[in-house]
TrEMBL record, chain A:
Example GO molecular function: peroxidase activity
Family: Belongs to the DyP-type peroxidase family.
Domain Dyp-type peroxidase C-terminal intervals: 226-423
Compositionally biased spans, kind Gly residues: 40-51
Region (Disordered): 40-75
Protein name as it appears in the record: Peroxidase
Occurrences of domain Dyp-type peroxidase N-terminal (ranges): 73-215
Any Pfam family: Dyp_perox_N
The entry's keywords: Heme, Iron, Metal-binding, Oxidoreductase, Peroxidase, Signal
From TrEMBL, chain B:
Residue ranges with Basic and acidic residues bias: 188-222
Organism: Brevibacterium sediminis
Alphabetized SUPFAM superfamilies for the sequence: DR1885-like metal-binding protein
InterPro entries noted in UniProt: LpqE-like, Lxx211020-like, PCuAC_sf
Coiled coil spans: none
Signal peptide: 1-20
Protein name in the entry: Copper chaperone PCu(A)C
Keyword Signal: yes
PANTHER family, A to Z: BLR7088 PROTEIN, COPPER CHAPERONE PCU(A)C
Organism classification: Bacteria, Bacillati, Actinomycetota, Actinomycetes, Micrococcales
């Protein structure tokens, strides 16, 4: 799959590479240096010369960092990491704006250090901070936290979503005043970061709920591949690409200054989707976080044709049933020999997008979860969009109405968050709100 | 990212007239870093980098506490080519501040005692204050130091120069001050010879339980 076509024979370099990977440098001796040296630039990839895929033996991903300070918070447009911890806090009694600012300053300083591979102050296990592996910490604010700066700052959409008929919500998973989305490619680093941020928080808040999610491990599938959920489906094919004009408009709610912007087949999204965001959120976005239980036992009872019919895509390539490739635009009018549409009108992708305009798009940054064999399993559906009313709700309402996938999925948690802009280097996340 | 705390301390000709205090978050460097001459031989370079950062206190933090005692940690760096002798630290909202050193007791515990004559930071070197090691001890807090708060201390050198530093408060359950029974916290009369101070980080879980129950000086948990 990763070897180049027509390169099936052994090459001397490929053989050396293979031997180095299999036996380690000590076994191969002097030749290993040559082989590993070549591989240093492309860890984990195939040789490119016909050799088998190599393993990264150098820990190349450990030192990788994502920026912390900047216009936007990381962890939104950032290509999803392998692991995520979502942890929501409820403000403790007596917490007012001054305390909230102290808390946010502590969290900001420690998140900034941790994401750059540096131990925060008072870190008793500082060695655990040294391999950030693309660690990001993303802050989300709930209405109670925002209202500490003044009730007039709370946007009207920052409240629980309307009730949907498909919901079976656990109230304990629908609360929280501050959310930390901690993502990274290394679970040990992640555990330490969460511990440090938790210790920063104990004086100010209680944990409301938490949930851990995962995707493919770093190095398993290559960068930029659509993830698969526990149903085996490719999940997130329709996402706008990071760095694209679509992403800027759909998630950050503002157009870039790009001269000739390119848009997806969905068409050109409006440039003003963020116009309704309060001033303190400029550079930020909104997050709807849905905890969607997935019933793997009943899914097992559905055979492949039924699964593909329900989704509207093939399980293998993720191509729409009207096309050949994952990224082919679905043709909801294409018919088969019997004259029936190839994609059912009640299939998931038809309900999620057929007939909806280019503004009705979201960025789903999902993570799978399961609590052990026979335990809970599902999807942490993190949906980022500039405008919940114009972008998220039209999709959610239609899916709640009819969607074949609802047979196997049940929303059990639902929270809505304001994602503030990124912090400046001398500031803290939320400064525009509390000092603005 | 935390920023250095930069002290203006003109050495070896000690005419420190200001400082830049900057905590780990957003407080701006407000102090002057101007020094008057210093070791510079050039009249034009009266603000040379060496003079401006004669002494820096990186990563300064203090263990949050409601009352009683606490300690300040961080890395004090001598950026000059002459030794600096730190002889005293002052904190306005406490009855007493001492410079403490620690000595291992051979079983994972650390005894601490006042450092007679203060700490000498050799030219170009650093002194690290850390839990279980040397630290600045604050006793008899007059008001709580809350997590996230920034406190200001004055550091005094043997040349009688005073420099202000800032430390951010963090909740921390190590660095427990385990005074001998009968010795009230904050009673400043006999701190010069107080007994053993436990360092929770070096003890077993059972030990730390014991400390939490018996130690009135522990205010790490809020």
């Amino acid at each position: 799959m990763t070897t180049e076509p027509g390169c099936t024979g052994f090459s001397r370099r490929g053989l050396l590479t293979s031997a180095a990977a299999a036996g380690g440098a000590g076994v191969v001796g002097a030749t290993a240096g040559f082989a590993l040296g070549r591989g240093a630039g492309s860890p984990g990839g195939s040789g490119g010369d016909g050799g088998p895929p190599r393993r990264d033996l150098d820990g190349a991903n450990g030192p990788q960092t994502e920026p912390f300070y900047g216009t936007h918070q990381s962890g939104v447009e950032t290509p999803p990491q392998a692991f995520a911890h979502f942890i929501a806090f409820t403000l403790g009694p007596g917490i007012k704006a001054a305390e909230a600012v102290r808390w946010l300053r502590l969290l900001t300083a420690d998140a900034a250090a941790l994401t750059q591979g540096q131990a925060p102050l008072a870190d008793s296990e500082s060695e655990l901070a040294v391999d950030p592996a693309r660690l990001t910490v993303t802050f989300g604010f709930g209405s109670e936290l925002v209202s500490l700066a003044g009730k007039e700052h709370v946007p009207d959409w920052l409240k629980p979503l309307e009730a949907f008929s498909i919901d079976r919500l656990d109230r304990d998973r629908c609360k929280g005043d501050l959310l930390l989305q901690i993502c990274g490619d290394d679970p040990l680093t992640l555990a330490h970061a969460r511990r440090m941020l938790f210790k920063d928080s104990r004086s100010f808040a209680e944990v409301a709920w938490q949930r851990d999610g995962f995707r493919r491990a770093y190095g398993s599938a290559g960068e930029g591949k659509t993830q698969r959920n526990l149903f085996g489906q490719l999940d997130g094919t329709a996402n706008p690409g990071p760095g694209s004009e679509d992403f800027a408009r759909i998630i950050w709610g503002q157009a870039t200054e790009a001269a000739n912007p390119v848009f997806s087949a969905r068409g050109e999204p409006p440039a003003d989707l963020g116009a309704h965001l309060p001033v303190w959120m400029r550079g930020g976005t909104t997050l709807v976080l849905r905890d969607i239980a997935m019933n793997l036992d009943t899914w097992d009872q559905a055979d492949r044709p039924a699964r593909e019919f329900a989704v509207g895509r093939t399980m293998g390539t993720g191509a729409p049933l009207s096309g050949e490739d994952e990224f082919d635009d679905p043709d909801f009018t294409a018919v088969d020999q019997r004259g029936l549409t190839k994609i059912s009108q009640v299939a998931h992708i038809a309900r999620a997008r057929d007939g909806l305009g280019p503004e009705v798009q979201i960025h789903r940054r999902t993570f799978n979860y399961e609590t052990g064999a026979g335990g809970d399993s599902g999807l942490l559906f993190a949906s980022f969009q500039a405008d919940i009313e114009r972008q998220f709700l039209p999709i959610q309402r239609r899916l709640a109405e009819v969607d074949l996938l609802n047979e196997w999925t049940t929303p059990i948690g639902s929270t809505v968050w304001a994602i503030p802009p990124g912090a400046t280097e001398d500031g803290y996340v939320g400064q525009e709100l509390f000092d603005g | 990212m935390r920023k250095n705390i930069t002290l203006a301390l003109a050495l070896p000709i000690a005419v420190a007239i200001g400082l830049a205090g900057c905590g780990q978050d957003d407080s701006k460097a407000t102090g002057s870093t101007q020094t008057d001459g210093g070791s510079s031989t050039s009249a034009e370079s009266s603000e040379s980098a060496v003079d401006a950062e004669a002494l820096s206190f990186d990563g300064a933090w203090v263990k949050a506490a409601d009352d009683g005692m606490t300690a300040v940690f961080g890395e004090l760096k001598n950026n000059t080519d002459a030794d600096i002798n730190l002889v005293e630290a002052k904190y306005a909202d406490a009855e007493m501040v001492e410079l403490h050193e620690t000595v291992g007791d051979g079983s994972g515990g650390m005894s601490m005692q006042e450092k007679k004559g203060g700490f000498t930071i050799p030219a170009g070197e650093s002194l690290r204050f850390e839990p279980g090691g040397d630290h600045i001890m604050i006793m008899g807090l007059k008001k709580a130091i809350k997590p996230g708060e920034q406190i200001k201390l004055d550091l005094v050198t043997a040349d009688d120069e005073t420099v202000e530093v800032t430390a951010v408060a963090k909740e921390y359950s190590g660095a427990q001050e385990d005074y001998a029974p009968g010795e009230a916290e904050g009673s400043s009369d006999d701190h010069g010879d107080h007994g053993k101070h436990g360092d929770d980080g070096k003890h077993t879980g059972a030990d730390s339980e014991e400390h939490e129950n018996s130690d009135q000086g522990d205010h790490g948990d809020h």
